[in-house]
Design a protein that fits this description.
By secondary structure, this protein is of the alpha/beta class. The chain is built from 18 helices and six strands. The chain has two domains: about 50-165, Periplasmic binding protein-like II (D-Maltodextrin-Binding Protein, domain 2), CATH 3.40.190.10; about 185-410, no CATH class. The chain is elongated and about 95 Å long.
């Protein structure tokens, strides 16, 4: 036990002082948060003055659209955001050719063609060199729809104010009702983002710690340092110490992630972490890490170079990232049969359960049963990894084949 403690302490203190740990601990939360919120912040940013050409045979509609854009969309300095160039006074074909020329020469950012029969055809065409400017497209679409709606109301003889009152949108609040009847108002965007952030935090903490374990075993094998270590400790003690030391490193990283997340949420007035969720975070991290660490330790003891090992690791990593890829389905269908079945696959169990816990409170039977399945898988993985590590760690010059590895895993029969 003393040898395991010494190895655990050495692995933990050595890794926590490394530049890799410091940089990854600081950069990863910024990457996760940035990937979630930066696009929305960029979309909210001011894009500057937009020059738009209007090609319309109906001059009144074009004028009303220009007025709507001028009144409703302005820059921070109070100036109109859109400067409109009307090209409807000449032949339509000539006007379209001129608008295309202005667009090609980057004089205008976009142009809109409004046909003479727009009220009947109900179709307007928007031309731009880049269609990624979603906000400008939506604003111009809103202006065209608003002007056409006013024109239709006027043509029908209805009172415009009465129609606006009748069609006034409602304030749609979203309330989540838990199993015990507790009601809580939640933002839809946060409802989606927070569980995904939870999964990413857990993924980085588990998989990255396991990969450090893999590289540690490979490095010591390559440098023949493992022969010296095994002269003082048993293979089981060495593997146990490494798994525990790097597991503590992952716990430290996960704790720092939680502190960072709590600080951000407190500043924004958002409650994203509860004591219950923190406990489940740690619980699923521990058993999930033991499962993955055992697999990575076995891979590290089989291969003699990191390049060869990464091919096997990539398969495990792709499987473990499935919860992030399937997060949209799980968030929309947390109680579906497919979600329940996937939660019992050990490779994705910790991530799926944290995803579900971030959204709602799973039933007790699901928490207990998935924990038992993952614990059983972790124990079996640790036993298998122990046998593989003990047999393969001192093998050099020949990579073991799959039949040989399966032979190692067979129980030894007593004579």
């Amino acid at each position: 036990m003393r040898n395991i403690f010494i190895i655990t302490r050495w692995e933990y203190l050595t890794r926590i002082r490394s530049k890799w740990f410091i940089i990854s601990t600081l950069i990863i939360p910024l990457i996760v948060v940035g990937s979630m919120f930066l696009p929305s912040l960029v979309m909210k940013g001011e894009s500057g003055l937009q020059l738009v050409a209007l090609v319309a045979e109906n001059g009144e509609l074009a004028w009303n659209i220009e007025q709507f854009l001028s009144e409703h969309y302005r820059l921070k300095d109070g100036q109109p955001k859109y400067q409109v160039i009307q090209l409807g006074n000449s032949n339509t074909d000539d006007a379209l050719k001129m608008a295309t020329s202005l667009l090609d020469s980057a004089i205008v950012d976009a142009y809109v063609y409004i046909p003479a029969n727009v009220m009947e055809a109900n179709e307007v065409t928007y031309y731009a060199r880049y269609l990624g400017n979603y906000r400008e497209q939506e604003e111009i679409r809103s202006a065209v729809n608003a002007v056409l709606l006013d024109q239709r109301i006027a043509n029908s003889g209805l009172d415009p104010e009465m129609v606006k009152e009748i069609t006034k949108p409602v304030d749609f609040k979203t309330i989540e009702v838990s199993a015990n009847g507790k009601m809580q108002q939640r933002d839809e965007m946060l409802y989606y983002l927070i569980p995904v952030i939870f999964v990413l935090m857990l993924y980085f903490a588990i998989v990255m710690s396991s990969q450090v374990l893999l590289r540690s075993v490979l490095s010591e094998r390559t440098n023949r340092l493992i022969e010296i270590l095994l002269s003082s400790v048993s293979p089981t003690q060495l593997m146990s110490g490494k798994i525990l030391g790097l597991g503590l490193l992952g716990l430290t990283q996960l704790t720092l992630y939680m502190i960072f997340g709590s600080f951000i949420s407190a500043n924004r007035g958002i409650a994203i972490l509860s004591s219950r969720e923190i406990l489940f975070f740690y619980w699923y991290f521990v058993i999930g890490y033991l499962f993955f660490a055992s697999i990575f330790a076995a891979i590290g003891s089989i291969f003699t170079s990191e390049q060869d090992a990464q091919q096997a690791v990539s398969i495990v990593s792709i499987i473990s990232i499935l919860p992030v890829m399937l997060s949209s389905y799980v968030i929309m269908n947390p109680e579906s049969i497919i979600t329940a079945i996937l939660a019992f696959i050990p490779f994705v169990t910790p991530f799926f359960m944290i995803l579900l816990i971030g959204m709602t409170t799973p039933p007790a039977w699901q928490l207990i049963s998935t924990s038992m399945v993952l614990m059983a898988a972790a124990v079996l993985a640790m036993l298998a990894a122990g046998k593989i590590f003990q047999t393969a760690v001192l093998m050099y010059g020949k990579r073991p084949t799959l039949p040989e590895i399966l032979q190692w895993l067979k129980p030894v029969r007593q004579a």
